[in-house]
Amino acid sequence: MDETPKIDLPLDGVLDEASAKELFDTLMGLPAPETVAASEAINRLGLLVDLSDDFDSAAGNDRALAWAEVINGWELTDGDRVLLHYFWANAWAGRQHRLHHDLNAVWAWEQLEVSQQILNLRMALGSPAFHSLEKVRQCQILTNLANQLNTTGRFVEALEFWAKALAIDPHFWMAQGNRAYALMHYARCLYDDGHRGVFFVAARDGFVDAVANERTFDPGGHPHAAAQFAAMQADLDAGLDIEGLRADIDLKGHSLGRGKTEVAYRRWALRERLFLNPLNDLGADPIAANDVLNLPTFRLPIHEPPEVVGLYNQMKQEFASARWLLYEALQDSGPHLSDRGVLLLNTLDYPAYSLAVEKLKFAFRAAYSIFDKIGFFLNHYLQLGEKPGAIDFKRVWKQKDGTIRPAFAGTRNLPFRGLYWLSKDLFEERGDILEPDVRALKNLRNHLEHRYVKVHDMTPTPRPGVVGDIFTDTLALSIGRSDFQAKTLRVLKLARAALTYLSLGMHMEEIRREGADSHTVAGPMFFTTVRDDWKW
Questions:
Q1: Which one of 103-112, 244-253, 430-439, 459-468 scores highest in mean pLDDT?
Q2: SS3 assignment for 484-502
Q3: N or C: at which end does the chain have fewer Cβ atoms within 10 angstroms?
Q4: pLDDT tens digits for range 505-533
Q5: How far apart are CA 148 and CA 424, in angstroms?
Q6: Are 401 and 413 in contact (CB under 8 A)?
Q7: How far is CA 226 from CA 67, 213, 233, 292, in A?
């Protein structure tokens, strides 16, 4: 160990500018942290990241990233590692902020700095030590992850992480303000005027709460954020009749269906944010308990049929059916009549065989299949020219040389960019996969489609070194029932987000097309709806 004493902030956590500069210079003069204890090395890393941001020092930021790489190679406790990933993400954020003085960099579809933040924050969130952190640190990790997902266009998923932060601390103002900022931009992507008004009111109220809580509770957060939130609130107040919009909103006075079964189902889907309805992203209010999201108004040549309507209908129906199958699988508590008399042999590894288990499998497969259909949709709608059999959700984004297709990169379409970043979670093949457990989802889907998945009520414990262990099925992918349920819910939520981004991205594209071709005369074509009593 070296003789360098532990470096820390004063007890009140506040340094005047001269003291901060002195501390920054001290840190910059230190060697790489190979000879100090892990906890002190991580403490220095966190200080260097914060001070580099304060003094807008690219050199300090680069040093912090280099230190993080060194520390990552050490044997660390779970507590040290979760802080390492948090500070490491903050170091990447510092580099991102310097690049984003250029608007073209902001709209770039590939951003290493963003992907590294998402990866590190997810690693921190998934650590066994996450829930042992102080609450403010948990809220910071959740809020920063939400912020970066929102940056990529994945605002639907970001809202869940802000909600988790606010469940931990309802007064965490940085989550409130950033959530309000996302709602404001979400509103601008909506094609429904009524929904847009609800979102603007929610955004305005979020800014009000953020500013009030910054003044009343822990002031921790970006030093300029409260003023920015107040300015955004003022802009909404100046541009909209907020109270007039609020008077037209009724979130509660809507039916949840007929009978206890339907009401319970809709309450569950609302709670899990599984309705194809943007209002479900604001909460579990009864107004959101229907799948009203559809395609926006769009234009076609007069001789071309509106085929994408049928395709979106089909994806919606498959999603809704998968959602119901998952719900039934979660509710089933005993053998179904179709399970009676099906002769199966007991392999002594606690296998779970039932209609309920097969419903889980059907729901997972149906939800996962939606992604490739979205790729098929985009290929047709954007006229990418690929053969239908050669395109899917992974390959729709890039040309053969690996660059983003001009149909995407040439636009500033935030929902489509969100779709692209969602695809990276599911299909990215490189080592910087954004979702740490994505391989497990891909592997599960591959085994369901092409191999063999065995679900267990109690997952057998592997016995290393035991040759010919009769309790280990080497042909199967073994998974516990509760784990399978969680993964199916996760894929359903991803599919819902993807269908939302597809619809809203199409709306933004139609706005762009109308601006580029404003002299074309268009005639209306109206659709009736499929009545519920026709669905059998």
A1: 244-253
A2: HHHHHHHHHHHHHHHHHHH
A3: C
A4: 999 999 999 887 765 555 566 677 777 76
A5: 14
A6: no
A7: 32, 10, 11, 35
Could you give the CA distance from residue 269 to residue 324 in angstroms, rounded to a whole number?
A: 9
pLDDT of 8-26, one tens digit each?
Answer: 554 345 567 888 888 889 8
Contact 501, 393 (CB under 8 A): no
Kindly state the average pLDDT of the residues 299-318.
89
Query: Whole-angstrom Cα distance, residue 183 to residue 187?
Result: 6
- Give the separation between CA 388 and CA 263, rounded to whole angstroms: 41
Overall average pLDDT of the 95-110 stretch: 84
Rounded to two decimals, the pTM is 0.92
282, 186 Cβ separation under 8 angstroms: no
Three-state SS annotation for 132-177: HCCHHHHHHHHHHHHHHHHHHCCHHHHHHHHHHHHHHCCCCHHHHH
CA 503 to centroid of chain Cα atoms: 17
Length of the chain measured in residues: 536
Which pair of tokens denotes residue 175? 């989550």
Structure-block tokens of residue 71: 């520390």
Given a contact cutoff of 8 angstroms between Cβ atoms, the answer to whether 99 and 412 are in contact is no
> Residue 72 corresponds to which tokens in the numbers above?
């990552």
Calculate the alpha carbon distances from 198 to 132, 157, 248, 276 in Å: 37, 19, 9, 16
Name which of 225, 227, 319 is nearest 277 in CA terms: 319
Establish how many alpha carbons lie within 13 A of residue 470's alpha carbon, considering only the half-sphere containing its beta carbon: 3
Sequence-separated (6 or more) residues with CB below 8 Å from residue 516: none
Alpha carbon distance 117, 27 (integer Å): 23
CA distance 190 to 511: 11
DSSP secondary-structure letter at 473? Answer: -
% pLDDT > 70, the chain: 90
Cβ neighbors of 203 (< 8 A, separation 6 or more) are 180, 181, 183, 184, 187, 232, 236
The DSSP 8-state label assigned to residue 259 in this structure reads: S
Q: For the residues of 25-94, what is the DSSP string, one character each?
A: HHHHTSPPGGGS-HHHHHHHHHHHHHHHHHTT-HHHHHHHHHHHHHHHTS---HHHHHHHHHHHHHHHHH
